[in-house]
Amino acid sequence: MIRVILCDDHALIRRGIRDTLTDAPDIEVVGEAGDYGELRSLMRDTRCDVLVLDINLPGRSGLDVMHVLKDEGSPVRVLVVSMYPEDQYAIRALKAGAHGYVNKGSDTAQLVEAVRIVAQGRKYITPEIAQMLAESLSQPQAEVLHERLSDRELQTLTLIASGKRLSDIAQELTLSPKTVSVYRARVLEKLGLSNNSELTVYAIRNGLV
């Protein structure tokens, strides 16, 4: 039996994933968490084989969670299930320690297959991600500016471009407004931009929102 923990801040999304996975005879959902704090408490007391993880979490992001698990040498295998398109976050997630990446728009059979493959210790890579990897190996590409951003800076960029105020972002990420302002300033500097309007245009042109 494959033991799975779900971590997503939207209860309805968790319910949908849970219902999909529990229909499989060889998968058991043993716990659910809505943020990093709940996840840490749950993982201390509950053994699991696969962590199904969203990237966009309040407080520490899913990418932060993977860095922590990787640094701790955790044996738990991580499958990222995210609303973000593969071409923007899949490679970043895999580099952070994910064993697979599935878009939330994928069909249920793909999600079940991904959990099974990841539980076996293999990487789950969609044809789209495989194509991206092949292209990156076969031809050198100019660096995309936002690849210079840290995970938290990229998260700040996407939230600003989604129309959220700094105070809203601070609350969502469980950070101080001053800290978010620092991230915003770093993003502007690294991308060579001047204001939030230019950030939004950049994000739209590069498919980040």
UniProtKB/TrEMBL annotation:
GO molecular function annotations of the record: DNA binding
Q: Name one GO biological process term.
A: regulation of DNA-templated transcription
Signal peptide segment: none
InterPro entries, per the entry: CheY-like_superfamily, NreC/VraR/RcsB-like_REC, Sig_transdc_resp-reg_C-effctor, Sig_transdc_resp-reg_receiver, Tscrpt_reg_LuxR_C, WalR-like
The UniProt record lists the keyword Metal-binding:
no
What Pfam families does the annotation carry? GerE, Response_reg
Q: Which residues carry this modification: 4-aspartylphosphate?
A: 54
UniProt cross-references to SUPFAM superfamilies, sorted A to Z? C-terminal effector domain of the bipartite response regulators, CheY-like
Please provide the record's keywords in A-Z order: DNA-binding, Phosphoprotein, Transcription, Transcription regulation
Segments forming domain Response regulatory: 3-119
Q: What is this protein called?
A: Response regulator transcription factor
Give the taxonomic lineage as stored in the record: Bacteria, Pseudomonadati, Pseudomonadota, Betaproteobacteria, Burkholderiales
